[in-house]
Amino acid sequence: MRLPANDLVALLVATSFAAGLNVYATVGTLGLLARFGVLPLPDSLRLLESGWIIAASIVLFVIEFLADKVPAFDLIWNALHTFVRVPIAALLAYAATSQLSPGKQLLATVLGGLIALAAHGGKTAVRAAVTPSPEPISNIGLSFGEDALAIFLTWFATQHPYSAAAIVIVLLAIITILVRWVVRALRALFRGAEHELVL
Description:
199 residues
């Protein structure tokens, strides 16, 4: 069974965002949903149903789950995962759209990568703002929320792709506002520090 093109696009929007938050949770969830017949994967993504891929995703998810709860280290972890989350999201979009024309497939690939980059960038910016906080609870709470959102969005997109895509569009708007707020706050902080140095 092949997903209609519009459903596929909506699904890719949601899963690309989820991959930007936690790629291992997203890949593992997609694999499990496909393995249990909830989601028909294109032939080019059938590899995700493999027991080895699912097991590797779960192991890597557990490692990320633990690493992502450590304040300060989570910033290093997330910075390194720029080179994991974004390319894998783009690769998933590329493979999922193999039945489309090369131009549309390239567009889907770029869109998948950009959505993952926005989610990843928003996550990293919020973490950078929260990490200096002396208590670890906010950092751990954010990490739990991101993991849960990645899994929920991936599953929800298989049941209600348009609603999941709409949620992602709202989240992208929120991320844009938050990133601008963080950038302004950092600029103000550095301007204040420069002013003190001059005095």
